[in-house]
């Protein structure tokens, strides 16, 4: 090995920081720790045997599943996604407006390259989905943020930001069952967001991997607009390892994404896209499967909310979950959740402190934490909260 210094990396590569959550997850993989920290869908609701059978059938039929696919995705899957999106937005979304990506995270990354030049402003939520923040930071975006609450992105705060002269290229939001805030963008705010996008000329990136994971009622439908780019994913409803996500957008965006995707990976996996197409197209099966996912997650969410309110009582505020995988727990007694974490880990429970979701890196979210109810069993959730309450009591 040469002893001289290695050649330099790009300025951009040196500026990219790792995800604090991914680092934390390595720590919390210890078997003695009950983790509320990850965002892992439960293996209990993954359709393991159905995926095995469908994969077998696809591979028995032909060798097409072993071949390169179109860059924009296998046509059969794009047809299924186009039909689902058309029903949601109550407008025709043609298959040519769909690009299948390697999970919706790749859609974020490709979109960031396509929409944003270095120095352009991108507005994100506060708290933010860190994967979106990373994707936009990686292309040199200047990040501004607006608060998000139980009704989603605060569009009044966004309007004030715009009135102050800020001109974003894109606004990112998670409209349904926000990660990490857990809220749902209200109908009024959906309308306001699209109105602002039309008035000020920015893209809305509506990142929606949780829309199908509703508990009592489906969320309001997205508003059809050529300013809105929608992202979806098979990760939370089928399995994350399929790495099947997608975006729907006006043709020029899809064409640009296709070109940049060619340079990234030529195409996604034909095999997993065909599996996803079969499962998403099988309406009776999908309806039953989603019912099962919703039943398991809503029961777990209820257990976690009940345990938190029971054990931590007046020290916290938490909203009942309406869907998705996360609760956003706010300590009203000033508990600093970053400072509490080592004691919580000592007692065998992990969570993600609120600061990890602050795009500005400040203290505003320092008394909040994100807890995932999807991964652990009901008994594990109760025990995790007992441990959290003990750490809080001893602080
Ligand atoms: N967007 C949001 C809001 C998410 O929570 C996630 C998963 N944590 C993703 C995108 C990416 O998911 P995937 O790449 O598995 O589709």
From TrEMBL:
Its cofactor is pyridoxal 5'-phosphate. InterPro entries: Aminotransferase_I/II_large (IPR004839), Class-I_PLP-dep_aminotransf (IPR050859), PyrdxlP-dep_Trfase (IPR015424), PyrdxlP-dep_Trfase_major (IPR015421), PyrdxlP-dep_Trfase_small (IPR015422). Its EC number is 2.6.1.-. Keywords: Aminotransferase, Pyridoxal phosphate, Transferase. It is an enzyme of class 2 (transferase). It holds the Pfam family Aminotran_1_2. Signal peptide: none annotated. CDD domains: AAT_like. GO terms for molecular function: transaminase activity. Residues 61-388 form the Aminotransferase class I/classII large domain. PANTHER family: AMINOTRANSFERASE, KYNURENINE_ALPHA-AMINOADIPATE AMINOTRANSFERASE, MITOCHONDRIAL. This is 2-aminoadipate transaminase. It comes from Rhodococcoides corynebacterioides.
């Amino acid at each position: 090995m040469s002893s001289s210094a290695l050649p330099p990396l790009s300025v951009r590569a040196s500026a990219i920081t790792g995800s604090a959550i991914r680092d934390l997850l390595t720590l919390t993989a210890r078997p003695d720790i009950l983790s509320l920290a990850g965002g892992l869908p439960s293996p209990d609701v993954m359709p393991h045997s159905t995926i095995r059978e469908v994969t077998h059938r696809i591979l028995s039929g032909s060798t097409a599943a072993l071949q390169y696919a179109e860059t924009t995705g296998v046509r059969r899957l794009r047809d299924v996604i186009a039909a689902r999106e058309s029903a949601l937005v109550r407008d025709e979304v043609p298959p040519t407006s769909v690009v299948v990506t390697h999970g919706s995270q790749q859609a974020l990354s490709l979109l960031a390259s396509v929409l944003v030049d270095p120095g352009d402003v991108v507005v994100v939520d506060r708290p933010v989905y860190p994967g979106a923040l990373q994707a936009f930071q990686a292309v040199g975006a200047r990040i501004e943020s607006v608060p998000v609450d139980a009704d989603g992105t605060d569009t009044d705060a966004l309007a004030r930001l715009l009135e102050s002269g800020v001109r974003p290229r894109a606004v990112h939001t998670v409209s349904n069952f926000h990660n990490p805030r857990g809220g749902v963008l209200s109908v009024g705010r959906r309308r306001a967001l699209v109105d602002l996008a039309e008035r000020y000329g920015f893209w809305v990136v509506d990142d929606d991997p949780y829309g199908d994971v509703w508990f009592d009622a489906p969320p309001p439908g997205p508003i059809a607009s050529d300013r809105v780019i929608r992202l979806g994913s098979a990760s939370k409803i089928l399995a994350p390892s399929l790495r099947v996500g997608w975006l729907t957008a006006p043709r020029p965006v899809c064409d640009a994404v296709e070109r940049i995707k060619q340079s990234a990976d030529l195409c996604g996996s034909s095999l997993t896209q065909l599996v996803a197409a079969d499962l998403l197209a099988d309406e009776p099966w999908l309806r039953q499967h989603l019912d099962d996912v919703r039943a398991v997650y809503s029961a777990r969410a209820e257990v976690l909310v009940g345990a938190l309110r029971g054990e931590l009582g007046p020290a916290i505020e938490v909203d009942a979950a309406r869907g998705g995988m996360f609760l956003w727990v706010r300590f009203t007694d000033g508990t600093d959740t970053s400072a509490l974490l080592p004691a919580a880990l000592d007692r065998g429970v992990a969570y993600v402190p609120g600061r990890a979701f602050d795009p500005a890196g400040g203290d505003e979210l320092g008394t909040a934490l994100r807890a995932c109810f999807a991964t652990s069993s009901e008994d594990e959730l109760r025990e995790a909260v007992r441990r959290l309450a003990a750490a809080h009591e001893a602080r």
